[in-house]
Amino acid sequence: MKTNPSIFNVFNHSDEYFEILNDSEFSRKYVLKQVLYILLFSFIYGIVMGSYNGVLQSLVTGVKIPSLIFLSIMVCFPALFVIQYMIGSTMTIFQMANIILSGFIVFTTIALSFAPIVVFFMITSDNYAFLKLLHVAIFTFSGIFAIKTIIDGLSFSCEKKNIYPKLGMKIFYSWVFIFAFVSSQLAWNLRPFLGSRDLPFELFRARESNFYVAVIQSAVNLFNPNQKTEVNPEETTIIEQPDTTQK
Q1: Using CB atoms within 10 A of its CB, is residue 239 exposed (0-12), middle (13-18) or buried (19+)?
Q2: Residue 239: its pLDDT value, please?
Q3: What are the structural domain ranges in the chain?
Q4: Which of 9, 55, 79, 155 could lock 13 by a disulfide, CB 3.0 to 4.6 Å apart?
C-alpha cells in the first residue's frame, strides 16, 4: 500500500514524491493540494511585497502574485500537453499538471523563505529601484530551482515509468523560454506589484514600455542615485529632468 507523502517531500524525497504523482489514485487529489499551497504561499509573499506601499497595495499584490502564476500556467500549459501527447507521451493531464505544479511548490516556498530578507531591506532602506531588483532576483533564483524540480519529475517519468519520451525533455526547455516571456509580459500588464510611493495608487498602470526595459532602468537608477527624475502622475511615465547647470 502506497503512503501519502507530504507536499514538501518534493524537496528531499523526490523519487518517492514523483512516484505518487504518477499514480492515478493520487494524481487528482495532489493537483488540488498543490494548488492550495501555491495560492497560500504566493498570497503571503504578495502581501509582504506590496506592504512597501501600504495596506491597500499589500492586499492587491497578495492577489496579483498568485494570479500571475496561475494565469501564466493556464496560457502555456495546453501547448505543452498537446505537443507532448503528439510525440508519444502517455502521461495524463493530471500527471503532467502535478509535475508542473511541483515546480511551483518549490518556487513559492523558496520565494516565501526570502520574505524576512525583503522585510529587512524595506525597513532599513527606501531605495525603490533596489527593492524591485531584489524581487526580480528572488523570482529568478526560485525559478531556477523550480525548473530543476520539473526536469527531475519529467526525467523520472521518462526513465523509471516509461510514460514520457526523451524528445519531450528537449521540447520542455523551449517551453521554459516561452513561459518566461509570457509570465514577464503578463507581470508587466498586471503591475504595479511593489508600488512607487511617488505615484498615486492604481490597480494597473498604463501599458507602455516593457518588463526588460524597466529592469534595465531600475539597474541604472540603482547605480546612478544622483540622476534626477520627475514623475508625471497623469501619464505615469518617468521623464529625465534636463541638466540646467551652466558650463
Answers
A1: exposed
A2: 37
A3: 9-197
A4: 9
